[in-house]
Amino acid sequence: MKKIVFVCLGNICRSPMAEFVMKEMTDELHIESRATSSWEEGNPIHRGTQAIFRKHAIAYNQHKTSMRMTREDFLTFDLIIGMDAQNVLDLKAMAPEGTENKIVQFAEKSVPDPWYTGDFDETYSIVREGCRVWLKRIN
Ligand code: 4NP
C-alpha cells in the first residue's frame, strides 16, 4: 500500500485535516500527518479542525497528537505533501539525501493556515478539493 504523509507547521490544523478528509475518501492508501516543527509536539488536533470533522461527519482519531517529521519518516513514506510553500522549503532542508524527490506541495497555492486566519471553513473547502485532486492523481 502506498504511504503518504501530509505535513504542515504545527500538525494540529491543516495536515490532520487533510489526513482525515483523505482517509474518508479512500481505504487504499496508508495516510498519516506530521509537523515541520516541534512547537505543538504532543498536543491534540486543534478544536477548530475537530469542529470541522464533526460538522461534516468525518471520522477521526481524537487521540492523535502532533508529531514532527523524523528521519525515518522521510525514508518510510512514498509521498511527502507540504501544505504550503514554506512547509516544502522546510521539508527540503530537513530531508535526508535521496528523499528530496518525494516532497511536493499540496496545491499550487499555499493552503491558508487557520491558526492565523481563524477561518477553518475556508481551509476545509480548499483541503477537500485538493484531496479529491490527489486521489485522482495517485490512483
Ligand atoms: P498548522 O497551524 O501548521 O496548520 O497546524 C499552526 C499550528 C500551530 C502554530 C502555527 C500554525 N503555532 O505557532 O504554534
Automatic annotation (TrEMBL):
SMART domains noted in UniProt: LMWPc
Gene3D superfamilies named among the record's database cross-references: 3.40.50.2300
Keyword Membrane (UniProt): no
InterPro entries per UniProt: LMW_PTPase (IPR050438), Ptyr_pPase (IPR023485), Ptyr_pPase_sf (IPR036196), Tyr_phospatase_low_mol_wt (IPR017867)
Keywords: Hydrolase, Protein phosphatase
EC number per UniProt: 3.1.3.48
CDD domains attached to this UniProt entry: LMWPTP (cd16343)
Pfam families, per database record: LMWPc
Annotated ranges, domain Phosphotyrosine protein phosphatase I: 2-137
Similarity remark: Belongs to the low molecular weight phosphotyrosine protein phosphatase family.
The protein's name in its UniProt record: protein-tyrosine-phosphatase
Organism: Streptococcus oriscaviae
Source lineage: Bacteria, Bacillati, Bacillota, Bacilli, Lactobacillales
